[in-house]
Amino acid sequence: MKKAVLITIGDEILSGNTIDTNSNFIATQLKNIGFKVVQIFTISDEIETIKKTLKSAFEIGDLVITTGGLGPTKDDKTKKAFAEFFNDTLVSDAETLEHLRQLLIKRNREHLFDINLLQADILSKSKVFQNHNGTAPSLMVEENGKIAICLPGVPYEVKPLIKNQIIPFLQEKFEQNFIVSRIISVVNFPESLLSETIESWELALPENISLSYLPIANRVKLRLTALGKNEEILNQELDGEISKLRPLIQNHIISESGDSIEEILRDLLISKKLTISTAESCTGGELSRLITSVSGSSYYFLGGICTYQTQKKTEILGVSEKLVQEKTVVSEEVAQAMSLGGQKLFKTDISLSTTGVAGPNSDEFESEVGTVFYSIRVQNFEKTFKLYLPHLERKDFMNFVSMKVLQDLIEILIREKI
Amino acid sequence: MKKAVLITIGDEILSGNTIDTNSNFIATQLKNIGFKVVQIFTISDEIETIKKTLKSAFEIGDLVITTGGLGPTKDDKTKKAFAEFFNDTLVSDAETLEHLRQLLIKRNREHLFDINLLQADILSKSKVFQNHNGTAPSLMVEENGKIAICLPGVPYEVKPLIKNQIIPFLQEKFEQNFIVSRIISVVNFPESLLSETIESWELALPENISLSYLPIANRVKLRLTALGKNEEILNQELDGEISKLRPLIQNHIISESGDSIEEILRDLLISKKLTISTAESCTGGELSRLITSVSGSSYYFLGGICTYQTQKKTEILGVSEKLVQEKTVVSEEVAQAMSLGGQKLFKTDISLSTTGVAGPNSDEFESEVGTVFYSIRVQNFEKTFKLYLPHLERKDFMNFVSMKVLQDLIEILIREKI
Predict the structure, then answer these.
(1) Per residue in B83-113, pLDDT tens?
(2) Distances from the Cα of B254 to the Cαs of B126, B240, B243, in angstroms?
(3) Which of A269, A393, B274, B345 has the fewest C-beta atoms lying within 10 Å of its C-beta?
(4) What gap in Å lies between CA B214 and CA B265, rounded to an integer?
(5) B346 and A24 in contact by Cβ < 8 A?
(6) Domains detected in chain A
(7) What is the enclosing helix (H) or strand (E) of B29?
(8) Contact A31 B13 (CB under 8 A)
(9) Burial classification of residue B322, based on how many CB atoms lie within 10 Å of its CB (0-12 exposed, 13-18 middle, 19 or more buried)
């Protein structure tokens, strides 16, 4: 397997202002064509640091991809560092300049500024990947059989460049081994206990198959990755190992295919022909966002409502005012009434509801911050759950609860044989 | 300013399975107490790699913080690498063991497994920060005036450890300079043009004040950071520089205080005493999630509805069937009817609506993928916008559109003097 090293350039990541999502995307894409990312450097935008890091990166990798530091402003120095590192000079490229001019015309800007002109400068020995969504082109330099590629930093620009141009280029350039991986989603099984349970199976895995544990919310994803010359044989090997694993943890497996909870749910709902809706409060829309974040969700998701204000729960979902006064808004009973109201409003098989306090402040009933009730209704079946998550920050709380609701729904759909 | 280096350990980041959000959080927290993160290494879970990286990190930083590689499973090797690097031995710590025992009892698990016991091993010369949300403790080692701290990898465990224990510890340990920063949010101003416009102002900034550009969606955040001994003087200096900047870009500034669009919106809505609701389609709940992701949003956000299926737009929002047939569901007219329906349903001052196609597949009207109309209604004022974003992936599309809706709302609230 060829080794890749990523270099993320720019102070916005180091200062904590921006989360680096590019590395994640690039690593996933590279994995599919047989490159393993062995290290990621996140560095500041200084020529000497960039050059020093390029040197370290080439010591461990066959392919080096940088993101960031190509913008037009003063703090962007990647291209200069590349030129110095590769003993090359920067020259203005007519084709890139024309591409840039067309792009700016599309954006209703006829005038090119001096700093825009500089963006058409390329290393004399580089190959250019034109950027259709921004002004900085991507450049590729090859030396001693190793490759360096620099990309802009904006994720919206990086993704299409990687997917449509760089991956096809690398695929053609290198002929790689096949990689096949499978993800087994395990729930209600603490990582340490799981590890003890499957230890002897893990130790007996053949050398070309590796296992990793990926805990996410309270699910553990076991990823098996197989490497070899023949795709069919790899699939057979994985089938064999998984059939040995299955009896050890059977009741805890919720999926052997999907990766994210949303994808697992999609496959289940489509195969069972069930429709779904949401009636949220404390999750603020995160639950419906998660469900709709996968393509195909319009086949089963009919709609969602977020009744944030207590009065809206009464007006729109028909939760009785008396019930709210008696039980308070963060209660099992209100969660149940909300999911019933949602099911009626959207006319769906499945209805999910959440009511709780994300914090940091409490509600008008002084409910305890971090408490949440959620109700899962599948046709006539209903089950209510309670969670207490006082240590989670607001956004994490909204996300964790929503993930857990979907995970419990999946378990119900599997266990209750609906 | 003291220098910090972060090391993220574990294959789940390198493989592209997990996005590293810990570094972002830690960098932000460290910045507040005067530490600048100068580099981040993301490495695999191998003892030799960890030791080599610790060495590189100590060459450039005064403080080294690692995350990951402390779990109970076989692929976690950080603690061993720390012991070897610091020529120390691992010893079982009675206090940590007792803490672990209590934690597992709370989780209804009375029995400690062998691999759980190992989690109570600490370096003999380390200080322990007990982990209240997981089984791996955080350890601190001091050598030659420099400090190394290892943390688990799970974000829900990292955040409280950093916030409640590590930051207070570092604050007491080091007496640092004051750091004051301001964020100016600029819209409708391409980065290159902005940079040209404020170049001479930027060049004239005093040495202790630095400027960085943070483009996010189609807003640019200008961050001014001042460093010095006296907080009051720093604030005066920043006020002075900002008052020189203001006339250069006045019409493009939407905020001089808030950081995120959601926070800027919160401050505006609370000060203007306006309520808000959402009527979404293609954004799938992301718009209401964004609004509710900041604390205090329950003061102005009354609720949101996501009518994903076309029929629900008619049934719940009162969008006429005839209009949908005539104009198609992704149209200016349907966006307007949706925001009107939302305003009536939730009885709010402001109503926002979105209708579009996130892709990758089109809808029943074969609308072009990436097209979206959104309507912003503030009392009797209404304005409709169109975006065409065919290159964005589904989740990015939902997020970009929602950010843009809120940004345009902020502009309307400021410009229209509502």
Answers:
(1) 999 999 999 999 999 998 888 877 766 666 6
(2) 48, 19, 15
(3) B274
(4) 19
(5) no
(6) 2-173 (3.40.980.10), 179-255 (3.30.70.2860), 262-415 (3.90.950.20)
(7) helix B22-32
(8) no
(9) exposed
